[in-house]
Amino acid sequence: MAPQREWLEQDFYKDLGVASDASADEIKKAYRKLARELHPDANPGDAAAEERFKRVSEAHSVLSDTAKRKEYDETRSMFAGGRFRGGGNGAGGGFPYGSSPGGYTTGRGPAGGQQFDVGDLFGNGGGAADAGNFGDLFGGLFNRAPRGGSRPKRGNDLETETTLGFRDAALGTTVSLSLTSPAPCTTCHGSGAKPGTSPKVCSTCNGAGVVSRNQGAFGFSEPCADCQGTGSRIDDPCPDCSGNGVTVRTRTINVRIPVGVEDGQRIRLAGQGEAGLRGAPSGDLYVVVHVRTDSVFTRVGNDLKVELPVSFGELVLGATVSVPTLDGNVGVKIPPNTSDGRTLRVRGRGVTKRSGGSGDLLVTVKVSVPSKLDETATEKLREYAEAERASGFAPRAGWGGA
Description:
This protein has 402 residues and is of the alpha+beta class. Helix 3 runs antiparallel to helix 4. The protein is elongated. The termini are far apart.
């Protein structure tokens, strides 16, 4: 059954609990919240939660794609708005979407419209001969070319999340993710046919996926009803996937996190998304990376910032101090008479850049005052303070109007 036909029976906005004019961010937030609550790993053995998880995932796959969402909204608007009148008894009035999954046949309305099967709109065939093929008329709206072969439907893209430590994100790592989603059936390897058999070329359309018919001076093409436009038939379907070539299962994926990944960055894994029907290409998997804060480092672009505690004597007399980096310690020279709060730059010890090279390590010195001194140190400090005053040093000279 064509995806657009199924859309008439589903309210994706209701599934996600958002308004029909919700923004992309609102849709994403709603999906992430529900996905965490309904994930099979969080609800083991709960069939109802698993089914809801599938509906929420499908809703997100459509509404998060701008083109698919537009197509979905137009499809629902067309039918819900009553542009196609129903009632096999000849009465007018719109028919509600989702009320008859087997298709709708309309009669002559008040304006004398001709009878046609709404199934023709979706290429299912079986409509009255005088109705014309509405699949050709609306082929552009439903993103389906009226002529030519029908391609198997590519699987939907999926999205998941992972959280990394600051250093793992900066240096790169490999994580294992557990993903429950539609995946190629392991019994038939995605073909949909029972092991030992294989799909056969459809004899009705000779594998083209479409059939043509003439109506007066016009020729029409429509998806083959015998193979649903796939170009092949399965006489003996796989018992585990019922011929779809897809089953929902939990799989483990090893994801290589590149060096220098940032918080909120999305990593695309081609072909690791939802499996396509009957061996069609799989969608992509997008992994959203969250990065925890670090007790030592903060990041600004590809530079790393660190605050270095130092003594007053180290600032005045100068010193070489050991400072941590992402891959070990480095000695940083503090020049004599360095002011508190000064930032020293260590080249090339920041985060590795994608273009090559690395950012810098920015070390800000912060004087640390002892909480207690013994008598000898206190006496020496008094002598220093006196010598400081005698030298004419005035730390507040010109400050505050003085």
